[in-house]
Amino acid sequence: MCGKDDGANLFDGDAPVLRALGVLCDAALEALSPTRCAGCERPGELICGDCLTRLDLIDPATACTHCGAPFGSLVCTECTPATGEPHVLRTSAIGRVLAVAVFDGPMPRIVRAYKDAGEQRLAPLFADMLLDAAVHAQASAEDRYGGLLDDADALIFVPATASAYRRRGFDHMGAIASALARSAGIPLVDALVKHGSSDQRLLGRADRKLQAQGAYEVVEDVRGARILLIDDVITTGSTVAAAADALARAGACHVDALALARVLS
């Protein structure tokens, strides 16, 4: 009969055995619940090649640097609405905005699979998308997005509210930011706390702007820092604008924003 000490020593310092067990567990889980594409449910990959090719990528050479919308390099219809009211991002502390793709096609379903269905394996893939977009923008549109990554002193993410964290069990942007910081070699600073509890996806443009005002508190020293602020989806811009304004008030000298997707109104 094995004694207690024998059982406790079975894996003591035996990393290969633990890794092998992890592989077996992953294989068993895969057999029970096969990986499916977050965009189309096709089995085999988290995001299949077809869904990747269907993403409406935003060209940094022609995007609006103020709000991240495509084809806004000359006159951005997103930044100049029919009401004549200036876009919230134009009046904020945000320097430049870059988004990977338009929030259309498979992108909404992929984002929901991560945020609402808890497919956390998407976090490093999203981080890769953000990194690729930023590197491409620096290289292909240096006059517009030069130094977006290379000049950043810190990577800061737009955090979830406490209620959203409890509901999901993780901070969706925190996980992406951790992976991106490692890949890009930029220090990750968990500097923002978000107050309030409402889901902004249920709000209109005016209500989003009103709710975002004063929602963010800076809890780390950002004085004199150039910040790269990341978020998942930019809709009206109220969220990243409010976060950037809070960072600027706390002493950040420059704030750029990088997002996965840009909603077009």
Please describe what this structure looks like.
The protein starts with a helix and ends with a strand. The strands form 2 sheets. Strands 1-6-5-2 form a 4-stranded parallel sheet. Helix 9 (about 205-210) runs parallel beside helix 10. It has one domain (about 55-260): Rossmann fold (3-Layer(aba) Sandwich), CATH 3.40.50. About 40% of the residues lie in helices and about 15% in strands. The chain contains 10 helices and 6 strands, in the order αααβαααβααβαββαβ. It is globular. With about 260 residues, it is an alpha/beta fold.
Give a brief rundown of this model.
The chain is of the alpha/beta class and 265 residues long.
Map the helices and strands.
Elements: H1 4-9, H2 15-32, H3 49-54, E1 94-102, H4 107-115, H5 123-140, H6 142-145, E2 154-157, H7 162-168, H8 172-184, E3 192-194, H9 205-212, E4 216-218, E5 226-234, H10 238-249, E6 254-262
Parallel strand pairs: 1-6, 2-5, 5-6
Antiparallel strand pairs: 3-4
Helix pairs in contact: 5-8, 9-10
